[in-house]
Request: fold
Amino acid sequence: MPAPRFEYIEGVTADVTFRAYADDLDGLFWIAAEATASAMVGSLDSIAPTVAKPVLLTASELDLLLMVFLEELVFWKDAEQLLLRATEVRVASRDGEHEVRAELRGERIDPTRHRLEADVKAVTLAGLRVERTDDGWMAQVTLDV
Reply:
């Protein structure tokens, strides 16, 4: 995978907003997941890939698909105290429906190894966008912290 390209946007809201950029939708969803996980923990490299959670999600719109995909990271953090990163991300569109298949890999939160940052509570609809650009794709996401 290419190096993640994302930026946090200061002063948009009291929450955490970022824009992610990629050449294709697979990369965009992966980079957005990296940005979301990075908002939760200081170093993504501190997350060992010891637990796997398969993901298959569908939505009628790409922005809503990205939202439910990122919500999976938040759900597992809250439900089982898992810090997860996305791997093998595949986004497909058929007959007006969009789907994402991925594997989320990570481990339980260990305060001795994971420097926790923001407690992400949800992915919001505020300003949520997935757009094709001249260079590929861009997403804007706001995380409720």
